[in-house]
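User: My instructor asked us to take a sequence, write out its structure as tokens, and then describe one feature of it. I'm not sure where to start. Here is the sequence I was given:
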Amino acid sequence: MRILVVEDESKLADYVSRGLSEAGHTVDVARDGIEGRYLATAGDYQLIILDIMLPGVDGFGVLAALREKRQTPVLMLTARDRVEDRVQGLESGADDYLVKPFAFSELLARVGALLRRGPQHTEAAPTRMALADLEIDLISRKAWRAGLRLELTAKEFALLALLVRRKGQILSRTTLAEQVWDMNFDSDTNVVEVAVRRLRSKMDDPFRPKLLHNVRGMGYVLEERS
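Assistant: Let's start with the prediction itself. The structure tokens for your sequence are:
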């Protein structure tokens, strides 16, 4: 899933971003309310984690602008722990509220609950996808081939999920590096090739037909070929 974190405390933003990325999500970070408001209203996110005390525009302003356009689930993450603050956040349109300091395990559990619930008042995006005999469940983060469970790491699943979402499209190494590892591609880094090779050994090599293909000089594509 693609998640936006709007948080001006650099260490906390990096901590949350790293933890969510390790859990297999793609994460963008906004460091102030103005950038957060722009990304929240213009971007395509399945969840937004939003601080209240932000420079430029506070979290309530970001939330108000977001709710004028879409119903993306919002988890407010803030040091404000008074009951009236929590009530204001929820009444302003937040879906959940977590007070700092917090255990990351609780944050991850709340993120999972909100993703399972999905956007309110809008048609939810599909959470189960398939190609030939390959199936993936985006919520449980499980994958199967010919009915057999595939034992994938978090990054392998994130890579597979991206390929399935964009099946039939050639994805460059740069795109994969940016979307799965949140990194600017370095031609001296072979992380993409290694991950693709490991993924292929689990979900493609033991099965027919082959689904994951190299496109010389361009990248990779997931598709069923005759």
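For the description part of your assignment, you could build on this observation: The chain has two domains: 2-117, 128-222. Try explaining in your own words what that tells you about the chain.
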